[in-house]
What we know:
37% of the residues lie in helices and 20% in strands. By secondary structure, it is an alpha/beta fold. The protein folds into 2 domains: 3-179, HUPs (Rossmann fold), CATH 3.40.50; 192-286, 2-Layer Sandwich (Pantoate--beta-alanine Ligase, Chain: A,domain 2). A 6-stranded parallel β-sheet has the order 1-4-3-2-5-6, sandwiched between helices. Strands 7-8-9 form a 3-stranded antiparallel β-sheet. Helix 6 packs across helix 7. The radius of gyration is 20 Å and the shape is globular. Adenosine monophosphate (AMP) is lined by residues 35-36, 42-43, 46, 152-153, 155-156, 179, 181-182, 189-192.
Amino acid sequence: MGIDSIIEIIESSQEMQARSEVIRLSGKKIGLFPTLGFLHEGHLELIRQVRKRSDFVVMSLFVNPIQFGPNEDFEKYPRDTEGDLTKAKGKGVDMVFMPPVSEMYPAGFQSVVRVDNITKHLCGRSRPGHFEGVTTVVAKLFNIIKPHMAVFGQKDFQQLAVIRRMVKDLNMDIEIIGVPTIREPDGLAMSSRNKYLNQEERKSALSLKKAMDMASKLAGEGERETKNIITSISELILSYPFTNIDYINICDPDTLEDINLLKEQSLLALAVRVGNTRLIDNCLINIG
Ligand code: AMP
């Protein structure tokens, strides 16, 4: 069975724009789910949420080279196009936009969308250029697919914040839907990159969730100094084999700037390497 018999696939931006125009004129609300693919249950929940709110769901399936750094995993990023299309169809995706790289970045391409302050923290520090790659591709997808709404996961908290900022700052008429993180039964946040983990590393990957639980517990017991919390949870993470901390920050959930004392609501954001795999996770800590 050819993959295009599973679900309708569009590869050309022009054709996608024309199709979206017709769908909009028919009065239907278009919902977009952008993904790099290798779909798991977390992604399927995003599809469910956007399906509920819209009349026509478009999934963009595109491993975006410009959001990967030179030493990152663009080439070996896990791909399973046929599996993704089957899952998407099963969850009610109506159309897939799957452009080749040359369609998104033809010769001569030289424009970017850059969000300033909030991209300087957390992953922006350890992955220079990453968010510029994300905002540029998402802005392009918005112009090509013309969605009324688009769905993103809180698993990538900073990405969601950056996209909300871009939409607001550039007056894009698109509703952004944020969906809470979907986890494995033991608490590990679902991620396409979990596929890289071997059995032993998979055990150590749980340290991120354990650290977040410990932070909430410490806050519940009255600890307010973020540096004390960070010290305790760093020790916990490093007590697991194969772990290497990229960053652990406690920050303001709106500005993503570090804070010294917990606020009523604070964001704990973690990036930890387990073996060669970089995992991120986050949680909100509420006090009072
Ligand atoms: P990706 O293709 O992995 O970049 O992810 C596509 C979208 O799915 C992004 O908006 C992610 O934040 C979201 N996502 C990925 N993993 C999860 C998860 N475990 N729970 C909720 N959303 C997720």
